Amino acid sequence: MPVSINLSRADFQMMDPLTELNQAMRKNGLRRSLVHVEITESALSKDVAGLKQAVHNFRQAGYEVWMDDFGSGYSSLNYLKNFEFDEIKLDMIFMKDFDEASKKILTACVKMAKDLGIHTLAEGVETKQQLDFLQSIGCERIQGFYYSKPLPTGEFAKLVAEKGIEIKNRQQSKFYQCVGLVDLASDKPTCLALDDGSHFRLLYVNEEFQKEVKRAPAVFKQIVNEWNKPES
Fold it and tell me: Signal peptide span per the entry (predicted)?
């Protein structure tokens, strides 16, 4: 299961994080694709050239680099232009004031990220309403109390087992990485579906698609059932 580590500006000033991480990965026999490096937006404000090179080096070494707390400062867009990030974590401030203005900003951020080939995660998600909206605009991941508070490893494993949460394998992860960059922001009913040869299911749907389904639920159910019907 992938994990993330947070690096501050002080970490880069006091040591070589890449060397330390490489040594830990070799010692424990872990794949580099299992560790994501998170750097807060505020850490990028000093020694831009040095951190830009550090981000590049991490990615060249096989690690994903994520920008944490995107939108919390004043230079977020400039950082996207100057740094190579694999994913941005949308700051929880957008969830605290979950009004129409926040929704429009989130929609624009997700669309922009997809256009740049950058994945998205929303922080601070606590309600079903927030989750449904984020899914409708194509945000790929969420983080927050909606699923669980932070847990020790043992309690987390128990939660996964109790809720029947499926941990994606490497092949599935690569598939969803590609699918996640599809832009669903449209004023037309739009969905992204998966047909694996035996089952048909929806991966993402936008708000307009949900409205159409509510207008004619029986028709949509019939279409899905026909799609899932075994061939004779």
Answer: none
- Residue of 116, 118, 121 whose CA lies nearest to 106: 121
Mean pLDDT of 7-16: 90
- Determine the Cα–Cα distance for residues 89 and 129; give it in Å rounded to an integer: 19
Least confident stretch, 28-37, 53-62, 154-163, 217-226: 217-226
All structural domains of the chain with their residue ranges: 3-171, 186-232
151 vs 72, 127, 188, CA distance in Å? 25, 19, 40
Distances (CA, A) of 39 to 115, 144, 166: 22, 19, 28
C-alpha–C-alpha distance, residues 157 and 162, integer Å: 9
pLDDT tens across 209-228, in order? 888 888 877 777 776 667 66
Active site (catalytic) residues: 123
What backbone torsions phi and psi does residue 202 show, to the nearest 5 degrees? -85, 135
The C-alpha atoms of residue 4 and residue 85 are separated, in whole angstroms, by 14
Q: What is the pLDDT of residues 170-213, one digit of tens each?
A: 888 888 888 889 887 778 888 888 887 777 778 888 888 888 88
Rounded Cα gap, residues 49 and 52, in angstroms: 5
CATH 3.20.20.450 fits 3-171, yes or no: yes
